[in-house]
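Box 3.1. Reading complex inputs
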Amino acid sequence: MPADLPRLRAPEKRPAIGIVHLGLGAFFRAHGAIYIAEAMEKSGGDWSICGVSLKSPGTRDALAPQGGAYTAVELAPDGTKPRVITSVAEVLVAPEDPAAVLSRLTDPAVKIVSLTVTEKGYCHDPATGALNPDHPDIRHDLAASLPASAPGYVVRALALRRAAGLAPFTVLSCDNLPDNGSVVRGVVLDLARRIDPDLADWIAAHGRFPATMVDRIVPATSAEDIEATARLTGYDDRAPVMHEPFRQWVIQDDFVNDDRPDLAGVGAQLVGDVTPFEHMKLRMLNGTHSALAYLGYLAGHETIADCAADPVMAGYVKRLWRAEIIPALTPPEGTDLDQHADALFARYENPAIRHRTWQIAMDGSQKLPQRILATLAENHAAGRDSHGLCLAVAGWMRYVSGVDLDGNAIDVRDPLADRLRLDGQTGAARVDALLALREVFPQTVAETWRDPIVQALHQLETKGVRDAIRALPG
Ligand code: CS2
């Protein structure tokens, strides 16, 4: 980093804070925070954001000296466009000062609490969507009034708001979970009921938990990205975010007192039912992302763009869409799913986006149910081919053994990693042990797809990724 570059700074005057965002990762800063910035520019309103990091201080340390401002860098195949975003006006680190977070959450001016805490941040059982009361953070939050988990912050803050005679805030989940509004509502109500049943009744009556579908590919920012942004912009920004040109945000229009920024005015779709959008997104994009992450990693590909440039992998992902995923979907009104698949493939091909297979492979135990297993369940009911998705599941099973097909160690990141390794066991015994994990595999999926998964893992382990793909029927 050239030492003489001026540090990026936010302007002195900004609209007041009206949103608290839990989980201030790159995705939210490259997606929701940009829509909110544009909505305030277009239609006004006090919707600046207090971003809360639930774990580490890294983002705050980089953003605080910049007053929360950062550069969002659009990476298109034909060029790079930087843009300064100033909608994040405050950054808190929850473990450093949980009381400060609760105090911000109980500010009457705060109308919305949005979340990108990743799948595992909901402390739920991914196969059923229900709260896991044995989760260490939930056990902590049941015993202590200063919380540790995202659901814990929401519940304790709603209790304080109720005691103060305030309205609840709208809870806006922006994670890639099926029916994310209902999931967060379910875990919040369950936790609240264990603390105070009257509080749970009040939240059930007055709280709002709109479902959302969020879409934009945002790879993790690397040290090289920070350097390149400085060269491009001529200032020093320690927390830029990289993103593709495409974006979509579909939101169930159900906010407390209808209080929200003018998101529709800047291209978000406010709808009655998000379900068809969300199924399309989770299964077509995230489902194939995960399939490419495991099989691509095992085939030696570093990024999704590398996978898309490999004709065997490209044929595989197109086959998944055509034969296995699209036939199980109901298209959202006005959407042609074949065209959607073509557009997705073009997004995957974007060579400017270095989205690592290893990054997407993280937390597979939390991602597989909604991305792949839901389609498997429906395909079984419809008697449809699913050999390609079974190969993806087999790829995950091999990946989480912690040893790749050449015998090299894999750095597996997953909350269940210790239980998934199974001492590197391979073959049918490995499949059976993993299919028995009820928090991941529903019983019917485990029973009906066992044999094709065993066969797929055998193909992978004996022939390698490309020949296993070539051996797929159809
Ligand atoms: C990816 C998503 O990391 C992952 O699991 O599949 O982050 C994906 O890039 C976004 O959902 C795209 O909208």
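In summary: The domain at 275-470 is CATH 1.10.1040.10 (N-(1-d-carboxylethyl)-l-norvaline Dehydrogenase; domain 2).
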